[in-house]
């Protein structure tokens, strides 16, 4: 059999599986990376643009921010 083709997304020589596990191996690490990708300069409400929140609100397993200005709730991971 021939070699299985790999695209650039599937295989990146500079980012090994062990690097991936180190960076995103726990739920906390994964959520922190998602939060940093969404809000690299801190929370910014997509609804009103305010930069202040009441912090993280735990609703079962979901963790959300609540905007101090418009009170909108935003999931950390989407």
Would you give an account of this structure?
With 78 residues, the chain is an alpha+beta fold. It has a domain at 44-78. Helix content is 26%, strand content 21%. It has helices spanning 17-24, 27-38; strands at residues 53-59, 62-67, 73-75. The protein has a three-stranded antiparallel sheet, with no helix packed on it. A hairpin with a 2-residue loop joins β1 and β2. The termini are far apart.
Give the ordered list of helices and strands: HHEEE
Helix segment tally: 2
Terminal CA distance = 41 Å
Number of strands: 3
Largest sheet: 3 strands, antiparallel
Mean pLDDT: 78
- Backbone CA Rg: 17 Å
Roughly what fraction of the amino acids lie in strands? 15-25%
Helical residues, percent: 25-40%
Low-confidence segments:
none
List the helices and strands and how they pair.
Blueprint: H1 17-24, H2 27-38, E1 53-59, E2 62-67, E3 73-75
In short:
By secondary structure, this protein is α+β, with helices and mostly antiparallel strands.
What features would you highlight for this structure?
78 residues, alpha+beta, three-stranded antiparallel β-sheet, 26% helix, 21% strand
